[in-house]
Amino acid sequence: MTRLPIPDTIRFVKSPARDAIADNASVETLVAEVLKRVAAEGDAAVRDYSEKFDKAALDRFEVTAEEREAAVERLDPQTREDTEFAISNVRMFARAQFGTLQDLEVEIRPGVHLGHRNIPLDRVGCYVPGGRYPLLSAPIMSIVPAKVAGVGEIIACLPPNAHEAMIAGCHLSGADRIFRIGGAQAIAAMALGTQSVPPVDKIVGPGNAFVNEAKRQVFGPVGIDQLAGPSEIFILADHTGDAEMIATDLLAQAEHDTRTRVGLITTNADLAEAVLREVDVQLKSLSTAATAGQAWKDYGEISVCPDEATMIAYSDIVAAEHLQVHTEDAKTFARKLKHYGSLFIGPNASVVYSDKCCGTNHTLPTMGAGRYTGGLWVGSYIKTVTHQWMDEDGIREVAPPAVRQSASEGLEGHRRAAQLRLDRLQG
């Protein structure tokens, strides 16, 4: 499950039966074919793959303004209220984050002026998953921060068979254009452009293995947020852990997908055994047990650590997408953790609140990527670019060392460019 060594003092009460990372490798060839065809054939290839994979025959992909408005009108009133509640929370947090992003200009030496600007992207593509369940929060998480960041145009793609409420969610969140295209063909269309879909500068949003692989393959000419998915949850618990609550939270995440990775890391052997029993009990009455049970069977794990330090070390190796802390002093414990997508401190902070509506983003790094990146946020839609300018004092500061360094490297053109300005200043 991880490329890093696991401490040999850890005892596994339940080990995963499959390797989530290795299981991710089988879709590469198919995705490469999709990208190649979309590049060559545009809309025709997208239409063909939509019929093949989604069983949807569409004459046009874009959702009209009338269809968008009708989808909003048909929303259940309570669903609309809850959707707007979530949009409000995500917007407020994104605005607060945006407020921390400041342009900069500083004179580091006499006459040497350096700075940076935060510039919103021109056009972003937001992939909105909607296959197994109508994930009403998904468009909110990718579109609302883009709107707050000031992105010029926001393109949303969602599977053609997605629930109509998902279209309403895209509209209410602020998407400029919405397309009924899903899977790898959606990523290809947004990255490469077709007759209907304009090419974007960056693609964001979670998806299945095919969407992730497509994002990986198009990266370079276009940016991506990260390779997000399948979902993960790990819970860190000591003797104060509640077996029923822990099992409930594990299964809540496991019902996302049969490939969801779920785990408990604890210092208490009795709690480990209790959670193992409680998961089996809850699966018997869970309506989504077919999905959650398969995920638990294949990718679930429970590990017992000899002490807190080992528990922290193993957690940082896993670098879980969602990491819950159920310990006696959760806030103090949380400050010792470094690697995760998003941290849920104390038993009251369930992943479900972030998944749906509390305001933090649910598009997060998986497969250990939490060791080097965080999740989707307003800064994901901005590029920070540097600039510099110099007056005469600045030339006097930097030209002589630049001349000498260029000469020592044998780069005569560089040396001349640096020397020219110095000569004119001195002449």
From TrEMBL:
Asked whether the UniProt record includes Metal-binding among its keywords, one would answer: yes
Tell me the keywords, alphabetical order. Metal-binding, Oxidoreductase, Plasmid, Zinc
CDD domains, sorted = Histidinol_dh
* Record PROSITE patterns: HISOL_DEHYDROGENASE
Entry cofactors:
Zn(2+)
Output the superkingdom of the source species: Bacteria
Its family?
Answer: Belongs to the histidinol dehydrogenase family.
What is the protein's given name? Answer: Histidinol dehydrogenase
